Amino acid sequence: MKKRFLLRFIGLAVLLPQLLVAQAPAIQRVEPTNWWVGMKNQSLQLLVYGKNIGSSTVSLNYPGVQLKKVNKVENPNYLFVDLAITPAAKPGTMALTFANGSNRTTWRYELRRKSYQPLGVTSADLIYLIMPDRFANGNPDNDKFADMLDPSADRSSPYLRHGGDIQGIISHLDYLQDLGVTALWMTPVIENDELLKKEGPDRMQAGYHGYHFTDHYKIDRRFGGNEAYLQLSKALHQRGMKLVQDAVYNHVSDDHWFYKDQPMKDWFNTWSGYTNTSHKEQSLYDPHGAPADRKVLLDGWFTPFLPDLNQRNPYLANYLIQHAIWSTEMFNLDAWRIDTYKYNDVAFMNRCNQALLTEYPKIHLFGESLVSTPAGLSYFVRNTVGFPFKSNLPGTLDFPLFNAINGGLQQNFGWDTGVSRVHQTLAQDAVYAEPMKLVTYLDNHDENRYLSVIGDDLDKYKMGVTWLLTTRGIPSLYYGTEILMKNVKDPTDAEVRRDFPGGFPGDRENKFTAAGRSKRENEAFDFVRKLATYRRNTPALHSGRLMQYVPQDGIYTYFRYDNRKTVMVSTNTTDKEISLDTSRFADNMKGFTKARNVLTDELVNDLGLVRLPAKTALVLELIK
Prior knowledge:
It is a single chain. The protein is an alpha/beta fold and 624 residues long. The protein folds into 3 domains: 24-113, Immunoglobulin-like (Sandwich); 127-270 and 309-537, TIM Barrel (Alpha-Beta Barrel), CATH 3.20.20; 544-623, Immunoglobulin-like, CATH 2.60.40.1180. An 8-stranded parallel sheet has the order 18-17-16-15-10-9-20-19. α9 (346-359) links the parallel β16 and β17. α8 packs parallel to α9 (346-359) and α11 (399-410) packs antiparallel against α12 (420-426). The longest helix has 20 residues, at 2-21.
């Protein structure tokens, strides 16, 4: 009896793996979640995820769609399915059949008609950067969810979510449009469903800012999910405004679903022991640089809880590129800001950029590379420098000019100090192929607030804002800068990411309205609005040529001009009023007899000597 039982047990043990294999494939994910017919690139690679599906066969029968190859990888929970979506394919739902023997599972996959062409973002625009969690709460019902890994929301904590969402932004589009904003950039809205991470003895790290992805194909439901994001895109475009999405290709959260169950060993950059990135980008373009230093920069991790993606893995590269195209088409994006650009594999970034530009020729792409010199920054954008590697990125955040403006306003005028820094930085524009496509800024979510940097000085504030809105490039304004929000990153970045007053239920002040702002705040807001509105309506100012003159005695003058109009910008960074002798500016002023002060609407009848008060920026529209 015991012998018979033992034989039966052994027989079941032998058959059990076969029985498991013969079960119908349990598909949990297919990504991209849908696709489009009419794409210029006909290739599509589906990531298919499910338990023990690696031995499944795949078939489909849909006119115009060809199954090219089924790729099996190390992890049996993944398949990568290569398709060709030919011009003959029509919109509809195709059936993908996954079979284990006679057991089958059908996954219905939607194909839509490609219909969107981005508007692009240009120097005619003013970008407004928002951290959605800290701007406005339009729907308190989505503040927190008990089934998420970070289920808390508490405005008294700098580490927790505060409840801001996409509906809150939609509700304040009138405010943004009145300010002169034409394009909206939000820190990432993709799901960050992760545990709170301990960064120090009394410091926690949470994903309220959005840079710790856990699911690429979900807009975080605490922001309102995919539906709210679609509504925002529609609302912006109905107003003639544009939408910029924030990309993160370098890393994901360690709570991302595919980090917990990795497709293959080289999906992430791994080390024998934890290795942090060096942040030293010089190793990429240094002709004397060591390969080991380049590897640490590119493959090192930002933090122990942000796994570094290996973009040299062809399947991961396809996944990231297709997600960018999917997002552009799904949400009607007009531009991408690319986070941590200098840490990405440069060949991958060129491939990704080109894929987007091929499908969407008008789309604008600009990266974040914190590099202190124009020569160094130019490596990461289209340039005129003889680097062995040539980037195809159209634009980048202009970190050198940011440093020059902020640092220059803190210093007295000198050969290399004060406003000379602004002039000298712009004088190096020859290293960029298209300097007009660089995105300029005074502060952002990673920097000390502009007003705090310049010592809470309203006159200096106006000078910097004038430079931002009248020099070359695409200006970007950080939320709250227009109402004099201030602070420094002490003890954490959360101090420069405080809630916009009036955006949340129970706020004592509402600075979205003139009545809720102080006299000083309204003065700043009105200054920004006046200049931003003039800039938007004046092609010479936003898209014309720039000619600048070497600063003398703390006075910096430049001109923006085209065939129809000339605008003179002159800044007195000293503590004394002067009468500016304009004779040295004859190249730009010849034939003009008077001018209109853009900021005061006053008429200036004598252009020979122009009164320039202390710590003042003057913007004059010249008149013949």
